[in-house]
Batch of 2 targets.
Target 1
Amino acid sequence: MRAIITFHGIDNKDSVLSYSPALFETLLGSLEACRLPVCSLDTLLEGKTEHGVALTFDDGMQSVFRHALPVIRDHRVPAHVFLTTGAVCGDNQWPTQPNDAPCYKMLNWDEIEALHATGIYIESHTHTHPDLRQLSEMQIQEECEKADTIIEEHLGRLPRYFAYPYGYTSEAAQSISTQRYAGSVTTKLCYLNSNDEIGLLPRLDSYYLKSPWIIRNLDSALSHLYLGTRSLLRSVRGSQ
Ligand SMILES: [Zn+2]
């Protein structure tokens, strides 16, 4: 079983974007206990393993530094942060954010540099977190170019992976991201399959990984069935 897990904030807020620090610790402990290795995206996607999980954090929330980093360091596992570069030092109230979205404080560059120094990969999530379906090819290029340049200027490393903001993509966005990055992730709720397109990789949202049972049995037939059903319900409702 291979899967990419999506997190946003690691904190105790009562929000779909939050995963509690205690549960995060439990999840990493359970993966270790059932010998499911936490891998980098490179390892997971380049056919080096048939068994593993990658951890991804979208947006760049400050709680990743405060609450995820100590656990990641303790467990000595890799992770990837998809950073919205225009929100660094600010909050997540970018123009396309729905009005009822909870407000989160974002990472500053000292914290991002500390994450990078620990071996956490800083990846691209555009500069302003737009809905890419609304943008022209040139605007999408500019969003990616700006984010990548800022990350390279600060860290000396270009992002290798990309997360579509809100999981929304278009033909143009997919074609640009495929040219620029080694892989791009969506919000499609699914384990990885051998026939996945590298520019449209599915992930498991940690929102669905909150029960102790599913955390301990992520690779069980029942978990596959549960997440498959949730995915189907989401697509019926029209959300990704
Ligand atoms: Zn996002």
Target 2
Amino acid sequence: MALTRRALVQTSVVAGALADPVIGRAALLMPDGKPWPSVKIGKVAKLEPGKPVAFHYPDDQSPAWLLKLTAPGYDGAGAGKDIVAFSGICTHMGCPVEFRGERFVCPCHKSMFDPARNGQIYQGLASDYLPQVTLRVDSAGDIHAVAMSGLIWGRASDMMPKSTG
Ligand code: FES
């Protein structure tokens, strides 16, 4: 069985779990062994189904979308498992994706990604899923981005071990 890049990143994320004193859940490690930042990105009570909220993760150079679905989604957070988040950068050539209807659409070459199914590509030129942000909801209803599955377009070297030689 071939190990896909996505599976490798997900395995690395799960394998690197440590206790997070801020949110009382697992803190996750990036592929290079450093912890992913834990960033508060919104409140459950303020989300409306189908109305995405922009944020940045894991840094200011990486736009992303927080979204409440109308039904449970893959790796969804919150009581209804319907809160998800994704990189806002298309995996084809890096254009910013937009949310239209129930999908993320890239205006450059019309790739479409399903936010209920792990950002799966189902139309267009992109060949990889939209990277999904792992979310945690704390007891106050605050939503935290704590990791990302998949590699942000054009940023692979930033998320993998850097050469010291
Ligand atoms: S850059 Fe998004 S489909 Fe080409």
